[in-house]
Fold Malic enzyme.
Amino acid sequence: MWRRIVVRSAAVTENIRRFSIAASTPSMPSPCIVHKRGADILHDPWFNKDTGFPLTERDRLGLRGLLPPRVISFEQQYERFMKSYRSLEKNTEGQPDNIVSLAKWRILNRLHDRNETLYYKVLIDNIQDFAPIIYTPTVGLVCQNYSGLFRRPRGMYFSAKDKGEMMSIIYNWPASEVDMIVLTDGSRILGLGDLGVQGIGIPIGKLDMYVAAAGINPQRVLPIMLDVGTNNEKLLEDPLYLGLREQRLEGEEYISIVDELMEALHKRWPKAVIQFEDFQFKWAFETLQRYRKKYCMFNDDIQGTAGVALAGLLGVVRAQGRPISDFVNQKIVVVGAGSAGLGVLKMAYQVVSGMTGTTANPQFYLIDKNGLITKERSGVDPSVAPFAKVTDEVKSLGLREGSDLLEVVKKVKPHVLLGLSGVGGIFNEQVLKAMRDSNSPKPAIFAMSNPTDNAECTAADAFKHAGENVVFGSGSPFENVELENGKIGYVNQANNMYLFPGIGLGALLSGAQIVTDSMLQAASECLASYMTEEDIQKGKFYPSIGSIRDITAEVGAAVLRAAVVEEVAERRGEVGPNELAHMSKEETVEYVTTKMWYPVYSPLVHEK
Ligand SMILES: NC(=O)C1=CN([C@@H]2O[C@H](COP(=O)(O)OP(=O)(O)OC[C@H]3O[C@@H](n4cnc5c(N)ncnc54)[C@H](O)[C@@H]3O)[C@@H](O)[C@H]2O)C=CC1
Ligand SMILES: CC(=O)C(=O)O
Ligand SMILES: [Mg+2]
């Protein structure tokens, strides 16, 4: 399958982009039923239009006298917000980055809490500027400071104290329909470690991306924090910390509480897709294994990241001017043997096996905090064991169990150096310089850890030390790099945001009972095929974030089609698997695009 990656032309990309923009902007919004009136509506961000309520609606909903008399159009409200945002940018010029980022996050968050339609309009139209605020890197800073920043709750918070009562607590959520849930226990937030309840910022940020990229209706998303305690001593000692002030639950106690929550969620919203996010290693694989055949769920760090990384790795092969089948010959050093690193290797092995038709023994090298992992290592986790190198094989290169990163890079001369370690700067000057001897004409460096300070290296350092012919990707955004020869060193954002919204959307629209490997593979293949040959030659492996809606529509369609082919799709809404099966690829993309929500003010109709 992977041999046949269809490379699209720039013209096809442009046509689809034009279509998606047109189709995602409905001209006549359908009315929306509200069960409240007056001030209650103004205080509800789902329905609030601030000064945008037309006079007739003010009459109908009991809003007369509660707003200044002039009606301001949606466009004027948008302009007004952007003006205050731009003046905030100007007024904070020269201040430390953290202060500026938090100030930007605050102004966006206030809008989010007040008027979601306007918030998502602003977010979608300025995704390039705002993704780094609502998503990585600023979301990391927000999580670190959550207890101090807290003003209003968002999403649901379940704690170890709620055991036995989750089934009833779940009904406290005001929406009867939920499509997408992102769930965390806060135990491994980006590369920042255990942040306990403060990790709720991550599901919120991921779901913002779902709304912006996949067009999921914001009234149908649900961020969830499962607070089972924290082992972060600093937080436990912080009097302002908002989570349970006790050590994390472990073992049977822990898993039984996750079981209970999953059952309750499935009971109330059986069609919802559940994304597991930022669970620590010891529970990430275990929960995925436990629930993936039972519920429509996936683990973004393991599975979403794998698909994005793989699409990038295939782009690297193309950039070298080699056929995709040459992937089997690529030497790849993966630094970080956690959820993300292992997810990538697992998928990459599947691809090599598929290409060679044999049990794969590719030239992939895995390094964790104790160095190169070989079969000699004792006590390795069962999920790591398949990727441990045979000792004789590494010996022939002059390496051994536990060889350090620099040694491995020097001896292996990899085509790709890929970091998912969470350790900022670990690709130091020496390591990057060693990449100059790579066997590839275009060595690839992926510093995928988040947020920015945890990236294995900066973009500037990669081009400076490893050479101007490298191709570069990072989990958090960096500016493109000006090279000495007047060329631009292009920075790819190698982040699972290019896949998880499409995986969720495709699973949802197909009514999939579960998320299968072929759905995930279809997502990755779609992303890998998205870039044109011209893009690839410029070192671009992923679309710009400005086209995230377009790529998500395509990924969503690919996932949906895979679910139908695999017969895991069930009827959801007016279109069932039989009709979906008869749609062409283009029709499926069109169908997915028309299902995307777009922020416009809907007429509100009151019903008791
Ligand atoms: N760009 C993206 O889309 C994604 C990025 N990530 C990032 O990847 C990082 C890791 O995430 P997980 O795998 O879930 O974490 P994890 O905690 O499961 O794994 C971390 C791994 O790094 C290894 N490690 C720690 N120190 C090391 C060192 N000095 N040298 C070599 N290896 C070292 C550990 O031994 C462990 O194997 C995080 O920073 C996260 O933000 C995760 C998912 C997606
Ligand atoms: C991007 C992401 O999911 C992470 O860094 O954990
Ligand atoms: Mg994550």
